[in-house]
Structure formats: C-alpha cells, structure tokens
Amino acid sequence: MITEIKKLDNPIALTNIDIYGVCFHESQNTEYTRVFNKVKTITEKSYLFEYNVILNVQSINDYIGVFSWKFRSKTGMNKRVLFNILKNKKYNDYEIINLCNPLPMPYLEYSEKYHEGFNSLFSRVCEDLGFNVSEPKHVIYSNFFIAKKEIFYEFQKLLKKAINLLENKYKTEAWRDSNYQGMGVEKLKESTGLSYYTMHTFILERLMSVWIDNEKIKTLDVWK
Questions:
Q1: Over the stretch 129-173, which tens digit does the pLDDT of each residue have?
Q2: Most buried among 9, 31, 153, 211, using CB within 10 Å?
Q3: Is the distance from CB of 221 to CB of 95 less than 8 angstroms?
Q4: 192 close to 46: Cβ distance less than 8 angstroms
C-alpha cells in the first residue's frame, strides 16, 4: 500500500476543495488532510517523492490540491490565510490557482542554475509531449497549486507520460544528480534508498507551468 490517509479535525473549510498534505513520517504534520507516502525503496519509485501520492489522488469535490507538509513554512500561509485569499480572489473563476511566490530570476534560468543539465532534459521531454517551451507566464513549483478536479486528472495523465519518458527514453539523464541539498545523505538513504536527489521531480514540478501556457488554462496567480 503506497499511501495512508488520516483526517484532521479543523473547523476552517471551503466545502468544494480537497487539500492533502503529504508527509513521510509520523513526526511531520499538516493543517490539511494528511497523506503518508510510504514508498521507501527505489524499486517502489521513491525517486518520485510526492508524485507517488499525486498520481493516485481523487476527490468528490470541485478542486484538488496536494501540498508538501512544508507548505506553511515555505509560503508563510496557514490554512486560514490561504482560504481567505482564495475567497477574496474569487478562485471559482479559475481552473488553476497558483500559490507560489515569485522567484528572483526567470524560472528556467533559475532551474538550470541550481540543477545543471535541467534545460536540455526538460526541453526534450516537453518536445516529446508536444509542448513549446518558453519562459512560463505562471511559475509553479513545489506543487503549490490547486486545480479544478477535471484539470487535475488531466495533469495526472500528463505526469504518467512524462514519467514514462524519464524512466525509459531519458533514463540516464533523469538519474543524474540534481545537486539539490535537502535532507542529509544518511537520512535520504534511510528514507528512500537514494544516495542523492535525481532529476525526476524537478522535471515534473516544472511541467505544470509549460502545460498551462500551451493549453491556455485559466490560471490565477495569487501573489500578482
């Protein structure tokens, strides 16, 4: 079993949105519906991290979000602040709500700077998926977005196609060291079986922004 879901009692609610917070250990917590990613081996595809959850999430509600358990610390938004922003921005008028803070430099330039070799691999994956690649109008990273259910399900299909490319056609490039400094080497090895962070998740994180531009999906950037 890949995931285990535990509901948290919280009175704050927007009744047509399901938001999940992905945790890897009992010590990690979230204000949203807690989902445990129990994948800990390379054989189980631990290199996909949160995507092991994202690929399987479904909902009976109109909108879906799947956040890292670090969402609050990375954005400064608690649940009450987030829901107030959504209400004030009339989120129901949009298909995707982007919750990412702006970056200090163009997104693709930023990605190449911190993950050498990113642009070459990303461009080839996008070309195979039928996308034109340019600096995106809506910069989404760390999976900090909420999407209409139908859009979210289409994104799941896109992710599966991209993962297939990364695991087969571009396997060597995808397994390069991304130079990401997350948890220490020993902790990473213990939690995932990996000795370093591969390129997989960084390619997948950036697909959403390119997909939005190519498909002209109506997107709200909450920080603009």
A1: 999 999 999 999 889 999 999 999 999 999 999 999 999 999 999
A2: 211
A3: no
A4: yes
Please state, in angstroms and rounded to a whole number, the distance separating the CA atoms of residues 33 and 53.
12
Written as six digits, the tokens of 32 are 């949203």
Instruction: For 51-106, write each residue's pLDDT tens digit.
Output: 999 999 999 999 999 999 999 998 889 998 999 899 889 999 999 999 998 888 89
Question: Tokens for 58?
Answer: 């479904």
CB-facing half-sphere around the CA of 94: CA atoms within 13 A: 20
- E strand intervals along 9-144: 17-23, 33-37, 63-68, 96-98
What type of residue sits at position 155? F
Cβ atoms within 10 A of the Cβ of 151, count?
A: 22
- Residue 124 CA to residue 129 CA, distance in Å, equals 9
Q: pTM, whole model, 2 decimals?
A: 0.89
